[in-house]
Amino acid sequence: MLDIFETLVAFDTTTPDQSGCLDWIANFLIDLDFDIEWLNAGTIRNLYATKRFGSQPICLFAGHTDTVSVGQSDHWFHNPHEMHRRDDKLIARGAVDMKGAIAAILEAYRTAVKSPACSFGILLTANEEGYANGLGTEHAVSVLKKRHEPIDWVINGEPTSQTQIGDCIKLARRGSLSAEITIHGKQGHVAYPELAINPNRHMLDFLTHCSQMPWGQSQASDSGKTSLQVVSLTSGTGFDNVIPAQATCLLNWRYTVDLNVSELTAWVEAQLNGLNIPYAIDWRHSAKPYQALPGPLLKKLTQILADKNIPSVISSSGGTSDARYLIDLTDNLVELGLIHQTAHQVNEYTTLEDLTTLSEIYSAILNQ
Ligand SMILES: [Zn+2]
Q1: How many Å lie between the centroid of ligand 1 and the Cα of residue 22?
Q2: Model's pTM, two decimal places?
Q3: How many alpha carbons lie under 13 Å from residue 210 in its C-beta half-sphere?
Q4: Which of 19, 149, 237, 282 could bridge to 144 as Cys pair (CB 3.0-4.6 Å)?
């Protein structure tokens, strides 16, 4: 497996470049008798490959080959686009997010038994880390859904593990909704507040209302909690004797499937209308939440982890993922990958032991 890992990390796939990485994987899969299909959109490459075993439905592994930039290049021990060993660490950009998981599934395909439990499918995009604009996984899923591809199970290989491979499985993720709100007052002298309208006072009233809302826990216990964060607050002229003309805040909700977005936006706008002061609001809905079923795939995975004495939890923590599109293919979806601790960091690393364990878990799902 190390040969696969070493080859994958050697491609500089800073998003959204694939730099030959997907082509290499396609050739690897052709050698294993997979059928290859490119579900490209615009300049974005999306690889879909299958190996059918009779009428067995497909277990789809999904992921991305693109990586975030190397960041502070002088802080890396070595060239981040070459595997570098330090003790048991295998250091390279993309090691855990998520070329390591791709190496693990490719190894599982390479060593699969002759009559596995499912047909094999793999969907890889080169555009997950940047601004996908609907051209990556979202596009590929829409094509597969339209033609009713027989996909029963989906494993998303994002790095979900916390300190041990398999200790954390994602079955749901929260959505992300932002609002930039500007409240317009009237500028004036602080000594004559009756001649001005202080937008900061209204902003504080509004934010107090927001912070007192019980955004709450999801009905589904593993969906987590909706939370609201005030991301920024700006106002003022720089002078302590001037009431400013406007105040702006940026809010972000991470929300569960239980929250109705149109009800939330209506509630926010009702609060602002209640202030009786001009305002402007700019909504940005960047991700919908998803909630998968605790179905047969989860049951099988839980058994595999129990057999390996790996205690695991189900969580919805972390950022958004492409699983929010993949859920349109099947409710039987799990996210399970390497340990996320060094994802996107300088000197990102995994270990051969972790790669091997993950590959064994993937392999058990396919073969048992
Ligand atoms: Zn990722």
Answers
A1: 16
A2: 0.88
A3: 26
A4: 149
Please identify every residue annotated as catalytic.
66, 128
Instruction: Collapse the DSSP code of 276 into the 3-class scheme (helix H, G, I; strand E, B; otherwise coil) and give the result.
Output: coil
How far away, in angstroms, is 158 Cα from ligand 1 center?
5
Is it true that the peptide bond before 16 is cis, omega within 30 degrees of 0?
Answer: yes
State the distance from the centre of ligand 1 to the C-alpha of 234, rounded, in angstroms: 32
**Residues contacting 119, CB < 8 A, separation 6+:** 50, 51, 52, 53, 54, 56, 57, 58, 59
Query: Residue 329 corresponds to which tokens in the numbers above?
Result: 């293919």
**Domains in the chain and their CATH numbers?**
2-171+292-367 (3.40.630.10), 175-287 (3.30.70.360)
Per-residue pLDDT of the chain in tens (368 residues, 90 and over written 9)? 999 999 999 999 999 888 899 999 999 999 999 999 999 999 999 999 999 999 888 999 999 999 999 988 899 999 999 999 999 999 999 999 999 999 999 999 999 988 899 999 999 999 999 876 889 999 999 999 999 999 999 999 999 999 999 999 999 989 999 999 999 999 999 999 999 999 999 999 999 999 888 776 655 555 678 889 999 999 999 999 999 999 999 999 999 888 889 988 999 999 999 999 999 999 999 888 999 988 999 999 999 999 999 999 998 888 889 999 999 999 999 999 999 999 999 999 999 999 999 999 999 999 97
